[in-house]
Amino acid sequence: MTSSQPRFAPGTDTASVEPALAPLLTAAGGRWVLAADGEALEREFKFKTFAKTWDFMTAVSLQCKLKSHHPEWSNVFNTTFIRWTTHQPKGLSAKDVELAAVCDSLAADFGEVVEQQQEQQQLQQEQPVACTLSGLANRAAGSAGDCCVPKK
């Protein structure tokens, strides 16, 4: 479910995160949509080949390791769906917004196919819905167990 208002994780400095979030959203010309009742950012990335897609995902995974944060994501051939959210505490966090922006930058570096993305963005503005692959992320997140709960 999409939302027009972000729901930030408790403890998030919204005064510093909101200005970074705004340009990422479709309403401001970005390509990310708020989803999961405003607790997540998601979008699809499309590349010319599977190899380019995999290179992009590898680069994102390296950033995840550096930031100690991971997305809910899926890949089918040349398309990757990414959802950023924080599970503990639940909601959007500064890391989610920062890594969404990193994804945009990496996608440009790896030659994202933008024309098709712009068509999809226009459709989302007409009928705002979560990305078409979000069902995969929902199923994956639901079966991931306690991956995001700190170990004691």
TrEMBL record:
<dbReference type="GO" id="GO:0008124">
    <property type="term" value="F:4-alpha-hydroxytetrahydrobiopterin dehydratase activity"/>
</dbReference>
<protein>
    <recommendedName>
        <fullName>4a-hydroxytetrahydrobiopterin dehydratase</fullName>
        <ecNumber>4.2.1.96</ecNumber>
    </recommendedName>
</protein>
<keyword id="KW-0456">Lyase</keyword>
<comment type="similarity">
    <text>Belongs to the pterin-4-alpha-carbinolamine dehydratase family.</text>
</comment>
<dbReference type="GO" id="GO:0006729">
    <property type="term" value="P:tetrahydrobiopterin biosynthetic process"/>
</dbReference>
<dbReference type="Pfam" id="PF01329">
    <property type="entry name" value="Pterin_4a"/>
</dbReference>
<dbReference type="InterPro" id="IPR001533">
    <property type="entry name" value="Pterin_deHydtase"/>
</dbReference>
<dbReference type="InterPro" id="IPR036428">
    <property type="entry name" value="PCD_sf"/>
</dbReference>
